[in-house]
Amino acid sequence: MSTTQETLVKSFREYVNKLVTYSQAIAVLSWDLRTKAPRKGTEARSHVIGMLSGEHFKLATSPQMEEYLLALEEPAVFSTLDPILAKTVQECRKEFDRSKKLPADRYQEYVVLTATSGSVWEEARPKNDFAAFRPYLEKIVAFQQEFIGYWGYTGHKYNALLDMYEPGMTVAQLDPMFATLRAKTVDLVAAIAASPNQPDTSFLTKHYEPSEQEKFNRFIVEQIGYDFAAGRLDVSAHPFCTTFAPTDVRITTRFVPNDLRTALFGSIHETGHAIYEQNISMDLFGTPLCDGTSMGIHESQSRYWENMVGRSLPFWNHFYGALTKQFPTQLEGVSVESFYRAVNQVTPSLIRIEADEVTYNLHIMIRYELEKGLIEGSLAVEDLPHLWNEKMQEYLGVTPDSDANGCMQDVHWSEGLFGYFPTYSLGNVYAAQITNTLKKEISNYDELIASGQFAPIRSWLKENIHRHGKMKSPNELLQDITGELTNANYLVDYLEGKYKAIYQL
User: How far apart are CA 59 and CA 12, in angstroms?
Assistant: First the structure.
């Protein structure tokens, strides 16, 4: 590499690092807005977030960035770049091409809108006030449609949004996958409902003091592998994980006094996300590659730890003693087997984040179908409450008692995260597929979990998934790990095997 090229590369690295620094500052402010900031500070904080996001947008789409990309993409230069730098150029090009099509003033207006909308949602949901939230959501949907017009799309309009969270995924791929899962799920749920072997869950809804829950949650997530020296656990209206660097990955949860499951499994879920982020190679820090490769792969890690580990019998054979010590009165006389069956109860529910493994994907299908309708313009935001309720009745046999427990229950739409929900089901599919390989390669897998020895499992996940960040695409990871691309049959087999045993079908 010539001196001129070395100067170019050095300057580009510094420019990209500046972009990443802006992103980290915005993330810190957004985390504070959702966890610690006073309500009266919402408007001022949203303005700051909008301004910084606007500056980030300008840097990412500047003539200077275009010059860097054109120079570095020259074949004679690109061939000399190390793999991380070459991938960074490709990621910056993708963001540049996508963002350059958006007017900067419209993008900044959109960022301010979503920052404000999130706080409006937080206040409107407890009041069951869809009318207060509706105008914000209408503007967000209008922005999504406007942006898709700038970006362009192939096939369905929704594909433009899917690609933001799961590169390469399309409606044409998702529709048949959901159709298969829907058919299998309906049959399994029907068989479970007809079983005389229903678990007793009464002890899970006794009073569990939030402060005591927090103690156990901190214990359990640390045992799994969450590094508190590189993170923290806080409370928010909706659990989430946010990352500033692999050395600073923060999670939140939500404590419900009369339900042990909500915070416990919510915390384990977010820990799955955090373990992924905490184990991305520091070689990628300061680049856009220091992140999970896709939302689907990210969700595979949270669902793996929450369900395939956290709701397994070997896991509770090890940790149940600690739990009963924390809550001796509530769990008096309850065996570990009874507890295991209870936390794996299958019953149609109103709230997605509290749904069991079997019915969970039905919740995602509802959101997916409504999102597609909003984006293609076949339904309006004002129709959401009654359409949501109709689909809940059709798919799950339950009708929400309020919009707070219906179409307002998730934070995602308030933040403009359209195209995100399908990645939850993809995460379930990926998790089952990856775990099938993991168990083949770690022969004493169940024994490790039953003894609380998670280090070998974390090492396997780090080596095969986490450390790569965005250096590998979702398809490349799946192909390298399992030898095949997305295959939902592993999830179907896992669910049928586990729940037929629990319900003695």
Answer: 12
- Rounded Cα–Cα distance for residues 284 and 308 (Å): 29
Q: Which residue has the tokens 């079997």?
A: 358
Question: Please, what's the largest Cα pairwise distance for the chain?
Answer: 76
How would you classify the pairing of strands 233-235 and 241-245?
A: unpaired
Helices (H), 36-103: 42-60, 63-72, 75-78, 83-100
pLDDT computed for residue 54 by the predictor: 86
- Four-CA torsion 133, 135, 139, 145, nearest 10 degrees: 90
Structure confidence at residue 1 (pLDDT): 64
The rounded distance, in Å, linking the Cα atoms of 139 and 374 is 12
Nearest C-alpha neighbor of 433 from the set 314, 309, 316, 297:
297
351 vs 133: CA distance, rounded Å: 19
Q: Both tokens of residue 169?
A: 């995924």
Can you tell me the distance from the alpha carbon of 1 to that of 5, in angstroms, rounded to the nearest whole number?
6
**Size of the chain, expressed as the number of residues it contains:** 505
- 127: helix, strand or coil: coil
Q: Could you give the angle at the alpha carbon of 63 between the alpha carbons of 58 and 68, nearest 5°?
A: 110
pLDDT, residue 485, reads 85
In contact, 313 and 272? CB cutoff 8 Å: no
Distance CA 368, CA 98 (A): 23
Enzyme catalytic residues: 270
CA–CA separation, 418 vs 429, rounded Å?
Answer: 20
CB atoms within 10 A of CB 253: 25
pLDDT tens column, 209-250: 999 999 999 999 999 999 999 999 999 887 899 999 999 999
Whole-angstrom distance, CA of residue 228 vs CA of residue 250? 9
CB–CB of 100/61 below 8 Å? yes
- Region label for 153, one of left (φ > 0), alpha (ψ between -120 and 50) or beta (otherwise): beta
Residue 37 confidence class, pLDDT cut points 50, 70, 90? confident
